[in-house]
Amino acid sequence: MSQDNRQTSRPRARHISLIIASSGLVVLLALLLIGQFQNTPQPTGRANVGGDFSLVDQNGVTRTQADFAGKYTLIYFGFTYCPDVCPTALEIMGRALEELAQQAPDKAAAIQPLFISVDPERDTVAAMAEYVKYFHPRLVGLTGSPAQIQQALQSYKVYAARVATNDDADYTMDHSSLFYLMDGDNQFVHHFDHAQTPAKMAEGLAQLIP
Q1: Which partner from 6, 72, 103, 173 sits 20 to 30 angstroms from 161, CA to CA?
Q2: Same domain, yes or no, for 130 and 181?
């Protein structure tokens, strides 16, 4: 082979080697990405809300999420000393369920309303029993120890914090104000804002429950 031919073939050989090396790198990266994708938990389309809890109802009976298996639960977190937001929200929930019962009795019967305290210090069993009776006949009030309440708050991603008032002996609770609709497997379905009208909530529940 002449010297000119050898000089011409060298760049060509290097070019081919670079193509092969680049192709191999692309294949390797693709395999790594595929492996990473397969080993990474994929989104399920559900919000990570809800979980285990063990609380006490207004009758002094220990209740867990298993007690409501097979039923939809409509849950609101609040406290009995709440001056306005909580009673308004519970009234909205109660009226929404009444409207739904008129429109679709089976769907209304499939829902268990729950009120979970964020204030275990003051929301005793007796206080919950006196409070929930004003809002809906099937409303279950749940309270418990600070540790039990904290577990429920964490499971449902609820914010709650004690806030001092001008009276050093008194306090209020700052907390998120949402209604959580969970299905019969305690899986998150939807949330409603506390400013929702009863009619709008009833309409939404009718659409969400088959």
Answers
A1: 72
A2: yes
For residue 140, what pLDDT is reported? 98
pTM: 0.76
- Tell me how many domains the chain contains: 2
Q: Is the pLDDT of residue 74 over 90?
A: yes
Q: What is the 3-state secondary structure (H, E, C) of the chain?
A: CCHHHHHHHHHHHHHHHHHHHHHHHHHHHHHHHHHHHHHCCCCCCCCCCCCCCEEEECCCCEEEHHHHCCCEEEEEEECCCCCCHHHHHHHHHHHHHHHHHHHCHHHHHCEEEEEEECCCCCCCHHHHHHHHCCCCCCCEEEECCHHHHHHHHHHCCCCEEEEECCCCCCEEEEECCEEEEECCCCCEEEEEECCCCHHHHHHHHHHHCC
Q: Tell me, what's the pLDDT at 22?
A: 42
What range does the domain containing 178 cover? 54-208
The reply to whether 59 and 38 lie within a common domain is no
User: pLDDT tens, 173-195?
Assistant: 999 899 999 999 999 999 998 88
In a domain, 143, yes or no: yes
